[in-house]
Amino acid sequence: YPLCALAVSDERPVSTQSTWGTIGGDFVGPNKLESHKDIVCSIDVTKDGDILTGGYDEKAKLWRNGKCVATMEGNMHKYGVVVCGLASGEIVTGSYKGLVLWDSECKHIKTVADAHDHVIRQIVPHPLGLATCANDGFIKIWTNKLEQILQIHAHPNTEGDHQMDFIYDLHALNNGMIVSCGEDCIRSR
Predict the structure, then answer these.
(1) 23 alpha-carbon distance from chain centroid
(2) Phi, psi of 162 (to 5 degrees)
(3) Which position has the higher pLDDT, 95 or 28?
(4) Rounded to 5 degrees, what are φ and ψ at 163?
(5) What pLDDT is attached to residue 65?
(6) pLDDT digits over 76-93, tens only?
(7) Three-state secondary structure along the chain?
(8) pLDDT tens per residue, range 89-141
(9) Maximum separation of any 2 CA atoms in the chain, in Å
(10) How far apart are CA 9 and CA 50, in angstroms?
(11) pTM metric for this prediction
(12) Contact between 180 and 133 (Cβ < 8 Å)
């Protein structure tokens, strides 16, 4: 499954820059990154401007100058993999219930096998380290070393239907406030 990448920045360095376009709905250009064996479900950028991708092939990849330079895989990934590049240089991946910390060269540092009780949907930088959300209704705040600081039952199941616990996305504001969206509504905490 190819990933079509366009990298444009005025402040942050990026690995891949060029013009691109479509012809008849097909991607045209040198930035077609191919290496995942299934759907790519997550993308982020490292502090150095390299591209991170996560896919349903249970792998995360680091791309530099249009080439895959490292693959983060192992029995810690199940189903789709979400990726997050931290300002400190480390990389965090999340999958079914677990979080994994990697150094900037994709060497494994730490695994938290039971970070959440269900599929992790998103990982984002937060002023205290990083924030995660999952289909268990919880948002969790972690240090950059994957030590849990706080958990918030942001989208609690009030109907007895576990589908209502799903949190699909979150964003951390500079002041630490978190905005999330899930099956029930959009919330800020």
Answers:
(1) 30
(2) -60, -20
(3) 95
(4) -60, -30
(5) 84
(6) 777 889 999 999 999 999
(7) CEEECCCCCCCCCCCCCCCCEEECCEEECCCEEECCCCCEEEEEECCCCCEEEEECCCCEEEEECCEEEEEECCCCCCCCCEEEECCCCCEEEECCCCEEEECCCCCEEEEECCCCCCCEEEEEEECCEEEEEECCCEEEEECCCCCEEEEEECCCCCCCCHHHHCEEEEEECCCCCEEEEECCCEEEC
(8) 999 999 989 999 999 999 999 999 999 999 999 999 999 999 999 999 999 99
(9) 50
(10) 12
(11) 0.80
(12) yes
CA dihedral 95, 13, 130, 156 (to 10 degrees): -60
Give the pLDDT confidence of 161-184 residue by residue, as tens digits.
555 688 989 999 999 999 998 877
Give the total residue count for the chain.
189
CB 60 within 8 A of CB 101: no
- For 56, the token pair is 């349903």
